[in-house]
């Protein structure tokens, strides 16, 4: 019994020690503070990331880098013509929403929140940073919406587990409003840091914003055709904004690729070894027939010293037969795929053509023909192939002159000028105007056998955001297929 | 003080004199392997004078006469020993007729009697069930423990551990079990099977509650061999040599060769630009070398220009070959691998010490070229009694592993991803092997997949000289240079203070640390020899990295056991501090190397990539458990644990979870049914709690190491953390019955369990439109229930012949009841836009009662009667996001038999699984590429499916049209097999049933009659056993719709992406005991 006493005492003492220890058991000091990352981001570094991530998203998969170039028949696949035959797939948009869009959302949040805005102002005035983020967000959202139609917009980027799909007309109107407000928001304060696109220049951001407003307004030409309708009104307001628009090549908004592997031009990476794509016969023949000087920069000469494209839409065995019979074809030109070849986002040529079409539609009183000719000139100058004599001949050539069918001519020239980095703009404008006239792949494998008119929603949406997905799909004329038209795409 | 010492000295003298008078005897009771047998009864021969040994097998008895002792213990044969100098050491052999005293290792490495456990804990002795050699712990468990589903990596993947899933999926996140070696948590791969004494699988929370949710997928408790008393010098030598051969290879077609010409030949026309040597080929036929599929011309034995004949400089230059099938080309590629496992163990034990040293060398040559593994294991386990109260011990394990080679088994990998996805069926492996270093005129290494020659091709044409999409696979494997070096040190140092036979306290310091050092090199010749081959992956490059992780545990454990009248009490209380640390540094070159083949990071063409990361975590715990027995037939069991975790929010980082259970040995009361020799019912309820990974509470912004010019980049993380995360608590219960009949010749054990896992902490996929791909949440409710049956018996038991048999069967259903009010699905994804399997198949957990692990993908549109609705051209229409069923099997089990006749032993292990779905990406691409058998079979008209429909060929398709009118037609073979990828990636035809029955292992051993051979009493060799062993021998059966794959060796949870073949190994083993 004596021993038992010791034992009980021993156990009791042990328990006391344990319980005494427990008081502090829950105090871990800084153990859970990450040594690897910051809890507060540098907004300038988020902006650099957002701009870089846009370029990397556009290069992240065939869906974004090359599908639209195939749909508008700039390029053709050389070996596996799956997408050129419109193989159908659900396409994920996460590379846009997660980064860069969430980066921009956080820039706005950190510059708005009272607790963080003082620190955030080290990266430029709060107002300037917010304005830049809003403009860039508008640019990205319009591009994603053009791919799919209705997308989560109003509810998006909130860390929510379900997001309703905002109708595309609301998205467009809100984007145009955002762009308008953002232009007015620049406060003349400290320039935005980390801006690898426009180097913090408020003036250039305003021009970018106004140009986007005009581009997006014209996109609505089928749904708001009238000269005093919503689209024309917004178009004119942007055109007449005192801050100006992108009007000469010095104003062009371009992403500057660097020479190292990580930040190089994605076309350079695409063709580093592999050669899965080459200019299509449709595109090469058009430029050849126009005797277009851009031919020499857009394409390389083939082994025979001439330019030739691959017939668009052949299936694999036919492609092989053709390639065996025509062992040489042109590749993308060196100027378009060098490591540091710039990535165009908005160009003067594009804006001239945009204004030409608006004038032609009677939205403005500008001279459509002059703008058309200026657009050609600006594009040639952009690619450093401008020559007075050739230009004079070109705008007089019945094939390329502003004459019988201006909408066709303007949009065919726009199609040429957008090559190769504005693939989504080219696909959207083809869908809107039907120009240039393109013949669908003869061996199309999609259900409609027609050129796709939208992307199918991501595979995870029906699972993760099911109710909202269903509601959005119910509004599509042919369901969640590539044959349904987005809101602004009217026959 | 002086007085105390005097008394102490007197006591010692008294004790000494007591021994010399032979009145008190002390001793130990151990089993054959040296393990303590607790609670043995020690009776003085011919008297009623008796005592009970303690939990550690120690006893002390005052003798009335100086007689012998009769030692008996439940589950063991009794033994009579004669004390020598007041000491008696009894070694009892295991009895087949008494089982209630059998002990198993339970949580915290506590040895407990099975009778007292309220849950099922199945223990196996690996030497009895596992084939010697390369098998690891998990494969020893396959088929031997009810409810264990094994997923082994293909045998070609050296150094990759198999994984097991216990009782189906127990959590939404499908975790691996916790492995514990002698009390130290560790990765099991670094444990040598020759050092393993026993393995116990603790299955549900009832058994694992003491470990917390870290162990909610079950615990595999491993006890290693210890030094033991032996009459000899205690040396054991084990040597096993096995050879490994590729076994399960998909069924390929052997009627058509390579290319994509719709069966046509290409004809070569010599032109003046071409090399003059090619003039001999003018007008001859060749097949398409550029395309890497097998839709080429039919084999006819005629002459053609092979891929290698175009190049000068080989004995095949400018010579034609015969267009013949190569049915074994894939099989021929995989080498015969070999495994050499050599172990020496030295052990000794004395009155107050035991020690064991073991060294093992494992060397494996893989079935893939240029792959090998070397592993060295060193271990030592020692205990020493410092005094009658203090025992100190140390268990130290060191493993070094060096693995060389590449074992990629995903899409488009250079071996199986080549052969079973994109390949030419005409390729002669012998010639590929012969020409593996053959250089084209430009200095590149030639490949079968090069550009077709055309009118302009010369010996200097780049595309013609270099590999298009694929290297010669032998060239690839000989040049890829990946080396991984791993060092692991784990073990513990312990000190036990034994107050008396009832109470002791022990302190443990445990450590498990592993460091990895890896280097990957890509030589310049690979960059130079490829045109399109996976660029820029095969740029001349160098990458290296180091990782280090450690876990340190400081543990204290007090134990108390005693009898109070009819009651027995067994209590433990303890505390633990666990510290985890992880560190990772990596570097790689970008864009190639400036100086070719100079492997330093500073030689990078573009700025090099680098990263460093570290992580700290601490968990503090206190816990206790106890068992109260009444009259040795009723037992009440309970435990409680409180954890404090540094990873949880500071104000809510403490959580407590209890368990309670009971067991009753009812057979004690059943006397009118003599066939029943043992009967026990048991039941229990348990809760477990859990935390999360460190740094999971706040959004953290990392700096991208590669700056854009002078601008740094930071991005918003993809996972949205949750600063309000709560510790997870989940509860479960289980009940079971264990019965033995006919003096334990036959036995049955049955367990039913039901678990409700609630508030699990998960990173769930959310719509990416949120700006994040994942979110950390406390998720709803997972219910799993099922039952396990184990049957054991000795159908034949004679003097010379014994047949032991065991069969186990487990059925499990895991249902997702609810996630959160606004999240109803949990998607398994790995990449930001990747869903694995090329976007064909994804695993999704849906709530509202759906079975865990639904395979999702695009299906085939069907009408109400399940008949496909066809397009006008006979192709299928897609149904997006269709569900094909769960990846989990309906039931699993195993059947193990051992036969011994005199000195011969035969053991056969079979395991099986019914149900579960998987997706095969290889079949999808292989059919797309015309490689698999079905792409070149005869249709019901007797024509090949590749023949034009107009000529009676094509694939026969039945369905309905859009107006539901029956359609019966033929579709061109090429179009039929291409439609699945083209049309929204239809996965349905390539979803298969994962059922199988497998002959896992056979060993046939012979114990040499040592005494007869050596014919002298003092010969040092006491035992020689030679065995023939075989492992993974035969897939006895698989589902009808699965003709190509071994479902127990799939590389991914959803199936396979480019799976390597299974391997079959057989060999020879010899064991020597001195």
What is the gist of this entry?
The complex is a heterodimer of chains A (491) and B (1074). Helix content of chain A is 50%, strand content 3%.
What does this structure look like?
The complex is a heterodimer of chains A (491) and B (1074). In chain A, 50% of the residues lie in helices and 3% in strands. Chain A is built from 22 helices and four strands. Chain A is globular. A two-stranded antiparallel ribbon of chain A has the order 1-3. Chain B is 8% helix and 46% strand. Chain B has a 22-stranded antiparallel beta barrel. The chains are: A mainly alpha (491), B mainly beta (1074).
Produce the secondary structure layout:
The complex is a heterodimer of chains A (491) and B (1074).
Chain A: H1 2-23, H2 43-58, H3 62-65, H4 67-71, E1 75-77, H5 94-112, H6 117-120, H7 126-148, H8 168-185, H9 202-219, H10 230-239, E2 253-255, H11 266-270, E3 277-279, H12 281-289, H13 295-298, H14 316-325, H15 334-337, E4 343-346, H16 348-360, H17 368-382, H18 388-396, H19 406-418, H20 423-433, H21 461-464, H22 466-474
Antiparallel strand pairs in A: 1-3, 2-4
Chain B: H1 2-20, E1 24-31, E2 41-44, E3 50-52, E4 58-62, E5 69-72, E6 79-81, E7 87-92, E8 103-106, E9 110-113, E10 121-124, H2 126-129, H3 137-141, E11 148-151, E12 163-166, E13 178-181, E14 184-185, E15 196-202, H4 205-208, E16 219-224, E17 235-246, E18 259-260, E19 266-267, E20 285-286, E21 294-295, E22 303-304, E23 321-322, H5 329-333, E24 337-349, E25 353-365, E26 372-385, E27 390-404, H6 416-419, H7 429-434, H8 462-465, H9 473-479, E28 481-498, E29 503-522, H10 524-529, E30 541-564, E31 567-593, E32 604-630, E33 634-645, E34 654-664, E35 676-690, E36 719-720, E37 728-741, E38 746-765, E39 774-797, E40 801-818, E41 825-828, E42 842-846, E43 850-851, E44 854-860, E45 878-886, E46 891-901, E47 904-914, E48 917-920, H11 921-928, E49 955-960, E50 966-971, H12 973-982, E51 991-993, E52 996-1007, H13 1010-1014, E53 1023-1038, E54 1055-1056, E55 1063-1073
Parallel strand pairs in B: 1-7, 13-16, 18-21, 36-39, 48-54
Antiparallel strand pairs in B: 1-4, 2-3, 2-5, 5-6, 8-9, 10-15, 11-12, 13-14, 15-16, 17-24, 17-55, 19-20, 22-23, 24-25, 25-26, 26-27, 27-28, 28-29, 29-30, 30-31, 31-32, 32-33, 33-34, 34-35, 35-37, 37-38, 38-39, 39-40, 40-43, 40-46, 41-42, 42-44, 44-45, 46-47, 47-52, 48-51, 49-50, 52-53, 53-55
Helix pairs in contact in B: 11-12
């Amino acid at each position: 019994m004596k021993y038992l006493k010791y034992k009980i005492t021993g156990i009791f003492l042990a328990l006391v020690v344990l319980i005494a220890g427990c008081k502090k058991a829950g105090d871990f000091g800084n153990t859970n503070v990450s040594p690897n990352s910051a809890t507060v981001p540098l907004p300038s570094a988020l902006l650099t990331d957002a701009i870089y991530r846009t370029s990397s998203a556009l290069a992240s998969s065939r869906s974004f880098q090359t599908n639209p170039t195939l749909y508008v028949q700039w390029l053709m696949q050389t070996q596996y013509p799956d997408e050129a035959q419109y193989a159908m797939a659900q396409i994920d948009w996460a590379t846009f929403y997660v980064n860069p869009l969430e980066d921009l959302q956080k820039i706005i949040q950190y510059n708005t929140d009272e607790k963080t805005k003082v620190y955030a102002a080290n990266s430029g005035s709060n107002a300037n940073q917010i304005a830049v983020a809003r403009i860039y967000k508008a640019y990205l959202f319009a591009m994603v919406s053009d791919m799919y139609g209705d997308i989560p917009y109003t509810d998006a980027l909130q860390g929510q587990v379900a997001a309703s799909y905002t109708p595309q007309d609301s998205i467009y109107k809100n984007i145009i409003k955002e762009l308008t407000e953002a232009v007015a928001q620049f406060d003349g304060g400290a320039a935005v840091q980390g801006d690898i696109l426009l180097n913090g220049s408020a003036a250039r951001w305003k021009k970018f914003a106004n140009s986007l407003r005009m581009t997006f307004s014209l996109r609505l030409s089928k749904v708001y055709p009238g000269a005093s309708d919503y689209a024309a009104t917004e178009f004119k307001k942007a055109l007449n904004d005192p801050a100006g628009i992108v009007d000469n090549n010095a104003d062009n908004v371009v992403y500057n690729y660097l020479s190292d592997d990580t930040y190089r031009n994605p076309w350079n990476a695409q063709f580093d070894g592999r050669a899965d794509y080459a200019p299509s016969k449709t595109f090469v023949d058009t430029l050849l027939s126009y005797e277009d000087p851009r031919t020499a920069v857009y394409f390389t000469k083939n082994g025979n010293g001439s330019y030739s494209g691959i017939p668009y839409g052949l299936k694999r065995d036919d492609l092989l037969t053709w390639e065996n019979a025509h062992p040489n074809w042109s590749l993308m030109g060196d100027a378009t795929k060098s490591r540091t070849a710039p990535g165009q986002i908005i160009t003067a040529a594009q804006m001239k053509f945009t204004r030409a079409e608006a004038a032609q539609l009677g939205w403005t009183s500008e001279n459509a023909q002059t703008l058309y000719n200026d657009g050609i000139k600006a594009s040639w100058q952009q690619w450093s192939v401008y020559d007075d004599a050739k230009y004079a001949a070109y705008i007089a050539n019945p094939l390329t002159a502003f004459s019988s069918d201006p909408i066709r001519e303007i949009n065919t020239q726009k199609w040429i000028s957008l090559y190769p980095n504005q693939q989504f703009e080219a696909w959207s404008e083809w869908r809107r105007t039907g120009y240039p006239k393109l013949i669908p792949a003869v061996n199309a494998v999609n259900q409609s056998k027609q050129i796709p008119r939208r992307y199918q929603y991501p595979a995870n949406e029906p699972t993760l955001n099911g109710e909202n997905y269903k509601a959005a799909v119910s509004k599509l004329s042919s369901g969640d297929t590539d044959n349904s038209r987005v809101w602004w795409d009217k026959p | 003080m002086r007085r105390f010492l005097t008394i102490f000295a007197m006591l010692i003298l008294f004790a000494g004199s007591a021994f010399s008078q032979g009145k008190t005897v002390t001793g130990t009771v151990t089993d054959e392997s040296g393990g303590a047998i607790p609670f043995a009864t020690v009776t003085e021969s011919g008297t009623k004078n008796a005592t009970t040994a303690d939990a550690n097998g120690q006893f002390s008895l005052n003798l009335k006469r100086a007689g012998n002792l009769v030692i008996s213990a439940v589950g063991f044969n009794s033994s009579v020993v004669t004390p020598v100098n007041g000491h008696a050491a009894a070694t009892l052999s295991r009895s087949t007729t008494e089982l209630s005293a059998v002990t198993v290792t339970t949580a915290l490495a506590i040895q407990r009697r099975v009778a007292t456990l309220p849950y099922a804990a199945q223990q196996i002795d690996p030497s009895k069930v596992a084939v010697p050699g390369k098998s690891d712990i998990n494969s020893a468990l396959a088929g031997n423990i009810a409810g264990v589903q094994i997923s082994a990596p293909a045998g070609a993947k050296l150094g990759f551990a198999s994984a097991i899933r216990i009782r189906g999926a127990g959590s939404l996140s499908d975790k691996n079990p916790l492995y514990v070696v002698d009390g130290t948590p560790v990765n099991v791969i670094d444990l040598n099977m020759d050092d393993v004494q026993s393995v116990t699988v603790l299955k549900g929370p009832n058994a694992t509650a003491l470990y917390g949710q870290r162990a909610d997928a079950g615990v595999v408790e491993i006890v290693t061999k210890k030094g033991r008393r032996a009459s000899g010098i205690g040396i054991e030598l084990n040597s096993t040599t096995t050879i490994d051969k590729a076994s399960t290879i998909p069924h390929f077609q052997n009627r058509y060769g390579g290319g994509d010409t719709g069966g046509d030949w290409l004809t070569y026309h010599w032109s003046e630009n071409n090399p003059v040597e090619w003039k001999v080929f003018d007008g001859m036929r060749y097949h398409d070398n550029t395309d890497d599929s097998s839709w080429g011309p039919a084999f006819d034995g005629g002459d053609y220009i092979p891929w290698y004949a175009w190049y000068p400089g080989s004995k095949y230059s400018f010579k034609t070959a015969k267009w013949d099938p190569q049915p074994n080309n894939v099989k021929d590629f995989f080498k015969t691998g070999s495994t050499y496992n050599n172990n020496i163990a030295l052990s000794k034990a004395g009155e107050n010490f035991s020690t064991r040293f073991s060294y093992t060398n494992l060397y494996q040559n893989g079935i893939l070229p240029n792959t090998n593994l070397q592993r060295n294991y060193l271990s030592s386990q020692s205990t020493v009694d410092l005094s009658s109260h203090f025992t100190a011990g140390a268990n130290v394990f060191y493993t070094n592993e060096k693995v060389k080679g590449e074992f990629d088994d995903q899409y488009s990998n250079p071996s199986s991803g080549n052969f079973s996805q994109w390949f030419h069926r005409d390729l002669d492996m012998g010639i590929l092997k012969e020409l593996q270093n053959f250089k084209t005129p430009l200095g590149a290494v030639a490949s079968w997949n090069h550009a077709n020659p055309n009118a302009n091709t010369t010996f200097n044409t780049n595309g013609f000289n270099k590999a298009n999409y694929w290297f010669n696979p032998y060239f690839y494997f000989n040049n890829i240079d990946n080396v991984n070096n791993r060092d692991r040190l784990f073990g513990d140092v312990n000190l036990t203070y034994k107050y008396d036979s009832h109470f002791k306290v022990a302190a443990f310091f445990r450590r498990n640390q592993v460091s990895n050092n890896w280097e990957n090199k890509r030589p310049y010749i690979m960059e130079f020899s490829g045109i399109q081959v996976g660029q820029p992956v095969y740029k001349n490059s160098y990458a290296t990295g180091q990782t280090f992780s450690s876990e340190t545990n400081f543990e204290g454990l007090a134990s108390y056991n005693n009898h109070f009248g009819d009651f027995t009490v067994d209590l433990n209380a303890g505390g633990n501090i666990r510290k985890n640390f992880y560190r990772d540094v990596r570097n790689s070159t970008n864009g190639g190397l400036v100086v070719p083949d100079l492997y330093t990071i500073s030689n990078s063409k573009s700025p090099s990539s680098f990263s460093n990361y570290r992580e700290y975590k601490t968990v503090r715990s206190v816990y206790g458990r106890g068992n109260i027995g009444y009259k040795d037939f009723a037992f009440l069991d309970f435990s409680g644990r409180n954890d404090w975790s540094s990873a949880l929010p500071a104000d809510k980082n403490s959580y407590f979870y209890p368990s309670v259970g009971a067991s009753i040995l009812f057979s004690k009361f059943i006397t009118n049914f003599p066939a029943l020799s043992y009967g026990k019912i048991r039941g229990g309820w348990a809760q477990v709690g859990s935390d999360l990974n460190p740094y999971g509470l706040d959004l953290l912004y990392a700096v991208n190491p590669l700056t854009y010019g002078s601008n740094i980049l930071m991005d918003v993380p993809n996972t949205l953390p949750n600063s309000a995360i709560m510790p997870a608590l989940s509860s479960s219960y289980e009940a079971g019955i264990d019965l033995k009949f006919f003096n334990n010749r036959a036995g049955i054990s049955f367990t039913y369990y039901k678990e409700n896992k609630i508030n699990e902490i998960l990173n769930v996929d959310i719509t990416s439109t949120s700006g994040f791909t994942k979110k950390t949440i406390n998720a709803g409710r997972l219910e799993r229930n099922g039952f396990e049956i184990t049957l054991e018996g000795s159908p034949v038991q004679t003097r010379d012949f014994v047949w032991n048999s065991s069969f186990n069967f487990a059925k499990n259903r895991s249902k997702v009841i609810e996630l959160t009010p606004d999240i109803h699905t949990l998607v398994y994804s790995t990449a930001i836009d990747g869903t694995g399997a090329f976007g064909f198949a994804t695993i999704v957990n849906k709530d509202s009662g759906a079975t865990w692990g639904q395979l999702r993908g695009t299906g085939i549109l069907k009408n109400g009667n399940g008949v496909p609705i066809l397009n006008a051209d006979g192709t299928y229409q897609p149904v997006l996001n269709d569900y094909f069923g769960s990846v989990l099997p309906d039931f699993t089990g195993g059947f193990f038999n051992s036969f011994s006749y005199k000195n011969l032993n035969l053991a056969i292990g079979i395991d099986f699984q019914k149900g579960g779905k998987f997706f095969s990406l290889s079949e999808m691409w292989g059919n797309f590429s015309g490689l698999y058998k079905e792409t070149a079979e005869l249709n019901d008209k007797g024509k090949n499916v590749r023949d034009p429909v107009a000529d009676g060929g094509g694939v026969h398709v039945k369905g309905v049209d859009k107006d539901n009118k029956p359609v019966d037609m033929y579709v061109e073979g090429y179009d039929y097999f291409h439609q699945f990828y083209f049309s929204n990636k239809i996965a349905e035809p390539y979803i298969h049933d994962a059922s199988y029955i497998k002959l896992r292992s056979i060993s046939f051993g012979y114990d040499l009659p040592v005494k007869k051979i050596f014919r002298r009493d003092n010969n040092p060799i006491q035992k020689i056993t030679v065995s023939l062993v075989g492992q993974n021998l035969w897939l006895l059966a698989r589902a009808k719709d699965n003709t190509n794959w071994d479902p127990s060796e799939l590389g991914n949870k959803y199936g396979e992406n480019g799976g390597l073949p299974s391997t079959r190994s057989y060999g020879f083993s010899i064991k020597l005991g001195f």
